[in-house]
Design a protein that fits this description.
Keywords: Carbohydrate metabolism, Glycosidase, Hydrolase, Polysaccharide degradation, Signal, Xylan degradation. The chain has helices at about 5-10, 25-35, 50, 60-70, 90-95, 100-115, 140-145, 150-160, 180-195, 215-225, 245-265, 285, 305-310, and strands at about 15-20, 40, 75-85, 125-130, 165-170, 200-205, 205-210, 230-240, 270-275, 290. It is built from 13 helices and ten strands. The longest helix has 20 residues, at about 245-265. The structure holds (3S,4R)-3-hydroxy-2-oxopiperidin-4-yl beta-D-xylopyranoside.
């Protein structure tokens, strides 16, 4: 295949990227986003602080641009994200609401956003990063105010808003078999037992070079055995800078191994990378001294990692 998306199409899978709205005006960026991927995720513009920065005022313009881009290029849109403790405006996090009020605010947000994008967005990360590393639930404002039932409430509201969207729970450090992924497994198993409409698990997969969990595929398989789709949603593999050529070669192999793990599990419908160009990646800003985590270098030249993905697809 000549492009990642051609290869993925031939397998019936998606290969996606996070897209930064403000980068679409750069033709090199725009061309790669359009030509190499058959799925797109908004890197930021569908988050709560972007869409509902103050109560009752909804800004869909930037998200709509991404939907237009996707439709112009025949791409799926992966919605990210409805309920998350981060990039949550302070009117929500510090509003002092009681459980009933916050539940109404949460379900209103879900309903308004999903109704707006109904038919245009195939998947939604309904809840994002709800776990602590030990597998207990994170003390977000939603958990503290509403209690654990906020998660079931969110999925039920999402299903009512758009019955055709696939509804996902997404997190990081849940890619291998560990306490956090056990917590996730136990939660989704219990939600399914209660009839809560949940369709998919997203493994973010913000990896470190040479530290891809060896249990990735087996962990995906156990979620699949619950009847859920399980996707790789935010893949990058960061390297201590500067990265040398041996490291870039190992990175290529490891990107390929992650894609191969997805292809080996029939319930995995695809892999999304969290940006494709090293220059645009969130990694250097959040993990000082680390970078080179993507498929293209700072000048949008394909790296060995690009070929690692292409070969694996
Ligand atoms: C990151 C974006 O890449 C940054 O631009 C932003 O400043 C912060 O959020 N997990 C997630 C993503 O679910 O939404 C995060 O994206 C990366 C970690």
């Amino acid at each position: 295949a000549a492009t990642l998306r051609e290869a993925a199409d031939a397998k019936g899978k998606f290969i996606g990227t996070a897209v930064a709205d403000h980068r679409l005006s750069d033709s090199r960026y725009n061309n790669i986003a359009a030509n190499e991927f058959n799925s797109v995720t908004a890197e930021n513009v569908m988050k709560w602080d972007s869409i509902q920065p103050s109560r009752g005022s909804f800004n869909f313009a930037a998200g709509d641009r991404l939907v237009d881009f996707a439709q112009a290029n025949g791409q799926q849109v992966y919605g990210h994200t409805l309920v998350w403790h981060s990039q949550l405006p302070s009117w929500v996090s510090n509003g002092g609401f009681n459980a009933t009020e916050l539940n109404t605010i949460m379900t209103t947000h879900i309903t308004e956003v999903m109704n707006h994008y109904e038919g245009d967005v195939e998947y939604w990360d309904v809840v994002n990063e709800v776990f602590n590393e030990d597998g207990t639930l994170r003390q977000s404002v939603f958990q503290q105010t509403i209690g654990q039932s906020y998660i079931a409430n969110a999925f039920r509201a999402a299903d009512a808003a758009d019955p055709n969207a696939k509804l996902c729970i997404n997190d990081y450090n849940v890619e291998g078999d560990n306490a956090k992924s056990d917590g996730l497994y136990n939660l989704v198993q219990s939600l399914l037992g209660q009839g809560v409409p949940i369709d998919c698990v997203g493994l973010q997969s913000h990896f470190i070079l040479d530290q891809i969990p060896s249990t990735l595929q087996a962990n995906m398989q156990r979620f699949a055995a619950l009847g859920l789709e399980v996707n790789i949603t935010e893949l990058d593999i960061r390297i201590n800078m500067p990265a040398d050529s041996a490291e870039l070669q190992r990175q290529a192999t490891q990107f390929g191994n992650v894609v191969s793990a997805c292809l080996a599990v029939s319930a995995c419908q695809g892999v999304t990378v969290w940006g494709f160009g090293d220059a645009d990646s969130w990694v250097p800003g959040v993990f000082p001294g680390q970078g080179a985590a993507c498929l293209y270098d700072d000048n949008y030249n394909a790296k060995p990692s690009y070929n690692g993905v292409l070969t694996a697809l």
